[in-house]
Amino acid sequence: RDRSMVDRDTIEPRDVGFDFGTDFADKMSEKTPLYKRTRPKGNWKPVFYQFIGINFVKRLRTVFGLPTMFMMVSGYMGLKGLGYQLVDLAMLPYFNDLLDVIGPTYQRYTTVAYLPWSMKGLLGALSDTIPLGGYHKRWYILIYALFGAAAVVLLAALDLKAAPVFAALFLLCANIQVAGTDLLLEGKYAELLTAHPESGTDLITWVYASFWIGSLIAAGFAGPIADHVSPRALFWMALPFMAQIIIPILLGWFPEKQLPKEERRIKVGHALAHKKIFGLALVMACGAVGMGLVNLFGSKLTVLLYALGSSVALIIASYLALPLILTKATVYIFLATASYIGMRGAIDYFYKGDTACIPHGPYFDNTYYATVGKIVNSLFGVLGTFLFQRVYSRGSYRVALWSTTVLRVVASLFDIVIVKRWNVDIGIPDKMAWVMGDAMIYQLCLTLDTMPIIMLTSKLCPPGVEATVYAIIAGFQNFGSNVASSIGVYLIEAMGIVTKAPCNFDNLPWLILIGHVGLPLLTIPLVFFLIPNAKMTDNLVGPPKDSGETLPDA
Q1: Closest CA to 128 of 463, 497, 427
Q2: Which one of 31, 126, 163, 186 is most buried, counting C-beta atoms within 10 A?
Q3: Is the sign of the CA dihedral 242, 248, 250, 256 positive or negative?
């Protein structure tokens, strides 16, 4: 260890070995003061280490420990970055090319597949209330892994062209694994961020960098495999990455202490003490189940009415169940997400349409649309992560959210230009125009927009129910995505957009203008009414620990 990088009066070196015993994760999770980043005169090493990220990794190792870092890599690079991205990138060619499903139906099925992300509140309530083997999180992750692996095997092995609804249900099962694991890891790093507020966004940056590196690797395989082998082969490729998280769990790398024997029971009192929060989690889960049912079996008008009605009901329920500062942030997150209308059932089919559908292009194949597009997505996602760390990480939540919303709207204008074929008129190829807009600028802005929300969510979790509250806030965001997708199903059909020959995309520019430009811009004033006027390093839950005051009741 370079001792010149450490303030000797405030920190003592710890022996960080590689003894992966049963208590190793506990040792490594102990609180340790941060490095003070100093630059001794005449020493070039600190500048070089800072440039290539060594100091960043040292700070993480000192504060959070190696097992926590490895666990986050397994969860976010291995599972969510590689395994889940292979499954997600397989969905469009699987439904469009293999199962021959039309655009609006494809969007309905993807809405159903993503529903577990809206049920995070219920999953968090279960893990908070019912410990398994003395652990609130560890064995749940193992169960989710077995569940998800089985779903991926069924998707890879079965021919579901005659019953595509089962494909949607199996994808839902795969999403249960990823959403449930993501929830428990989020709850853990929310707890760690609350315990170490001085660490700023270091752990968030590590998580997002791991995810984007995994996504980048997955993207390199997805398109060519879908084009030249089969979309189903992608599910086989995803299987080992979906299952690998079992290894660090069994090795005890997840930073969680086992409960004493007398506390290894169902915490009825805990649930009753926070009955409003747990009730809100149950209401959201029921709303998600209903959303799935109407998307599978309801008319387009039923889907629209249910999406709007459930949105109003959840907003009211949040005001009744959560503290005001938490409610305001939650409502903003929900409305900002729901206002960006989902239209993948139209846009994806436009970019991938053949000559029988679209006479004059753009004719993207899976290799370009999935692989090249996703690689550019991943690179700019990583860039967004580090730009956030450098530009926004110590700044204001409000500035970060309104500015990135504006940039995301600007990126959406590229889709209108391509659909109207204006780029061809001025000599810009479709592939270049699409990469410049949707793949580059949009993804960069989406990452910059998402990370402040994660920071805000982490900082607003009250002690004692971190996993549940974090899950509810994340669930609101994901429910907003489902609402946006359901409204999109209605608008695609109502505006007469047809995605199979003879196709009709005449009204697609208007749909983009309404759903990706107009409605998102309306959420900017809400930033100043609903988001705290605070910096990302501020403590938002309550007073400092040594103030003698108590934290507000959740």
Answers
A1: 463
A2: 186
A3: negative
Point out which residues pair with 135 in neighbouring strands.
132
**CA-CA distance, 281 to 494, in Å (whole number)?**
33
Q: Taking 50 as the threshold, does the pLDDT of residue 5 lie above it?
A: no
For residue range 249-277, what is the model confidence (pLDDT) as tens digits? 888 888 788 888 877 788 777 677 778 88
Amino acid 113: pLDDT = 93
Q: Is the CA virtual torsion 92, 94, 99, 100 positive or negative?
A: positive
Partners of 504 in beta bridges: 498
Assess whether pLDDT exceeds 70 at residue 234.
Answer: yes
Burial class (CB in 10 A: 0-12, 13-18, 19+), 428: middle
* Closest C-alpha to 145, from 208, 85, 80: 80
pLDDT at 32 over 50: no
Spatial CA neighbour of 471 closest among 136, 3, 211 = 136
- Whole-number Å distance between alpha carbons of 61 and 35: 10
Average pLDDT over residues 86-98: 91
The pair of structure tokens assigned to 69 is: 């870092």
Tokens representing residue 291 in the block: 């959303």
Phi/psi for 135 (5° steps) reads -125, 140
Most confident among 7-11, 445-449, 506-510 (mean pLDDT): 506-510
The string over 157-187, giving b where at least 16 C-beta atoms fall within 10 Å of a residue's C-beta and e elsewhere, is: eeebeeebeebbbbbbbbbbbbbbbbbbbbb
Mean pLDDT within 188-197: 72
Contact by Cβ (8 Å): 108, 294: no
The widest CA-to-CA distance across the chain, in whole angstroms, is: 75
How far apart CA 276 and CA 308 sit, in angstroms, is 23
One-character DSSP codes across 429-475: -HHHHHIIIIIIIIHHHHHHHHHHHHHHHHHHPPTT-HHHHHHHHHH
Question: pTM for this structure?
Answer: 0.78
Average pLDDT over the chain, rounded to whole?
80
Among candidates 314, 340, 367, which has minimal Cα distance to 521?
A: 340
DSSP category for residue 463:
T
User: If we measure between CA atoms, which residue out of 160, 162, 109 comes closest to residue 292?
Assistant: 109
Greatest mean pLDDT among 253-257, 338-342, 407-411, 452-456: 338-342
The tokens for 13 are 């070196």
pLDDT band at 108 (very low <50, low <70, confident <90, very high): very high
Q: Output the CA torsion sign for 414, 415, 416, 419.
A: positive
Between residues 153 and 401, the one the model is more confident about:
153
Alpha carbons 33 and 26: distance in angstroms, whole number: 16
Identity of residue 463: P
What single letter denotes the amino acid at residue 485?
Answer: S
- Structure tokens of 364? 């993207």
